[in-house]
Each structure stands twice: as C-alpha cells, then as structure tokens.
Amino acid sequence: MILVTGATGFLGSELALQLAKQGNRFRCTKRESSSIPAILRSFETIIDWVDADLLDIFALEEALKDISQVYHCAAWVSLRQADKKPMIKTNIAATANLVNLCMQQKIRLVHVSSVAAIGLAKPGDLVTENHNLDLDREDDGYAISKLESEMEVWRGIAEGLHAVIVNPSIIIGANAGIKGSGQLFETVRNGLKFYTSGSCGFVDVEDVAKSMIALMNTKISGERYIVSAENRNYKQLTSEIAEDFGIKPPAMHAGALMMGFAWRGAALAALLTGRAPAIDKVSARAATITRDYDNSKIKKAIGIDFKPVSITIKEICEKLNR
C-alpha cells in the first residue's frame, strides 16, 4: 500500500490525484485542522485519510502500517526570516522520523527536496545534481531545512534505506491559486511595475508528480534528480504572464540596490503595522540571482517530456481570470 504525506498541499494533492486516477487505493496523512482538497473529494472511496502529525512518532507509526511505498511531500515552506529556526527544526525532525520508520519497516521512499538545497553553479554553467549548498554562507532557512532534511534521507540510504530524492525547481500550476508560486501571477495581474535580473527553473506540478511516480516504480536508489522543465529569466516570465492577462508587462528594472531598499522598507512597514513583511532580505536577494538548471539526468532516467512552461502559464492565467 502507498502513503502520501502532505497530500493537502499543492504538490501532494496533484500526486494523490494522479495515483487515484491510476486506480490505486492508498493512504494520505493530514493535520487535524487541514481540509481535504477539492480535487480529491470525489476519491473518498479509495483514499484513506488519517490525521497524523509527522512529529508524533506514534501517530506516524500507525499511519505506516501495511505500507510499502511512501511519497514524502510534507514540509513547512516559508522565505520569512521569522520562520527560519522553527521551520528548519520541524522539517528535519519530520523527515528523520519518517526515514527511521521506513528503514525499520523496509519501505521504499521518494523524498521531495528542492533545488534550493542544491546551491549555485559558476557563472554561465547550469546547476546539476552534483552541486551542493554551502551551509556556512547560506541564510535562507528554507534552503537549509531542505538540505538538512535531505541529509536525513542520505543517512537512511547509507544504512540500507531504498530511497530516491527529487529536487523540483519552482513548481507552477493552475491549482496553486494565489498562494506559493501563484502569488507571482497575482502580483503581475495587480499591475507589477518592476522586473528583476534573476532567473530560475520552472516546472508544471503535473510533471513533478509524474516524475515521482515513475521513479518510485524503478529500482533506482541513492540518487537525487533535478525536476525542472525550462529556465526563464524574470523579465521574460513576467512579460509572458502579463501578455496572457492582457495587461502591460513590468517595464522598470529593479536592481540589487532597489531590491535592498524594498526589503528594508517592507521591514519598517511590518514593524509599524505588525504584519508580515511583503518581502524580506532573503527573497529580495533571490530575485536577483541567476539559477539555471540541467534537467538531463531525470530525462535520461525516466524519459519524460516536460510540458512547455508557456502552456502552464496560459492555463494559470485563464483560471485566475475566471
């Protein structure tokens, strides 16, 4: 039997949807306070939902009864500095608990990490699975939490765990709404004036889920895979989003200096209002960095043809315009 953690989230719900459409009966964990996603409500006869906090070892052990395969999608995702320490602690502990139980029960694991855990390449080079994040110089709590969670999986692999790791780039899709990566689309629709000089990889959520299922059904273990369809600079990306919304694209370049003013201004506004800052130092810096990824390893492993990013952008804009 299959278990999916984080199935109420953007990626986890898409993975569960694909498993359900394939006719699988499986189990999904969720927090007691979480709601079942709308896209999964019609599959209640084949999905066994259980309330299990991954920090509760006893609840997790109960959820893993009779399980032979686990897709670990659950994670706390935040770029806010205020969340840094608790996020790192939570993500690592949850993964460690899962790894330990999977080892004990000889369960195969597909673990969702992130390209944030891989780090940067030299200027002009593509980032590959062989690059590594420099923890001594990294200030992004999410990146640190994903790398150290990966280290728990690597520990398990060294001790006999059958596991594979996926490192998706920025995951986009129509069901994201206006949260997560969907925030960018909503910001452009609301009249974004500036673009930054950075770039990153982007991939449709459907392709990430497909890749995970394909890897689970191989005998591959002890490998990590970048899952990314295309690299786009932010000027190109925001212009295409604006075009699909039928509005003017951002026309002013926001360099590192302007982004520095932006996060400092947001921090001051947050201090005065008591609200979370719209942008912080880490996210401002990330918007100006070039991060382009090599997806040849995952293509070779499972033969996937990625959905063009332009098609996904159009689907997202059409749904947000309804």
UniProtKB/TrEMBL annotation:
SUPFAM superfamilies per the UniProt record, alphabetical: NAD(P)-binding Rossmann-fold domains (SSF51735)
Protein name per the record: Nucleoside-diphosphate-sugar epimerase
NAD-dependent epimerase/dehydratase domain mapped to chain residues: 2-225
GO terms for MF: aldehyde dehydrogenase (NAD+) activity
A GO cellular-component term linked to this record: cytoplasm
Gene3D superfamilies attached to this UniProt entry: NAD(P)-binding Rossmann-like Domain
Any Pfam family: Epimerase
